[in-house]
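Good morning C.,

I know you're traveling, so I'll keep this short. The sequence:
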Amino acid sequence: MSGFDVELWVFSRANERESVEEKHSEFSTAMSSLESPLGWFGLGLPAAPEFGESSYAAFGVKYPIRGLKFVGTYVNRLGLKSGEDSARADDFVRLGFKVPGKVLDYRAVLRDHFPRVIEAFRGYRAFCNFDQYLSAYYGGFHASETGFDAFGNLIERNETYNRLRREGVEVDGRRNIYALRPAQYWDTELCQRALGYGPEEVVTRLAGKVPKVEKLGDGVYVVFNDDPAMSYDDFLSLNERYKAILGLA
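The tokens, ready to paste straight into the viewer:
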């Protein structure tokens, strides 16, 4: 099937005081109250995954919708350092599908259904990745033996991206917003850290300029582009225009 690959990602700060079993039970209960296409109402609920010797454990759900996939990943609480403030200590879930499609309404997924999953997982950041556009925006990797910097990071063709990493910035992590995607969520803490202002100001700056912007939980949810045929030029234009409005470099 031709088309574009879409991935919906939600990240939640793992907490050593909350067990994976507790987090998973709350998430599963919330998802079981949500209906199709992304909800688990009427579906068999997955058990909390076991870690063994691993730092991460994954679980899945089988949707009745052909082509819709789900994978969730938890961080092993035993390996968390007290007060660790890095995206490496995030639990996360990912949903994937192709657009355009006959079953999933892409615009409805972004505008109506994705925000409910963010709430269910208690996300602090979330986004929609559209095809390979993000990788291209970061610059793509140098395919050579010298394609690594002194810290072991892959050197990409986007010098701004490379500079941020050289400066120790965790790009698009817990303190930084670098790339804008078709849809995104940032909680209050991430807004303050990365933008210097709160969700209410994001709403004020973007109201009437994007397909959707609204307060959601402790943060703000934005749909910058809901076109299922969005081109890479549209993606570049999205970043150029809205990063300027938000005050992002």
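Safe travels,
E.
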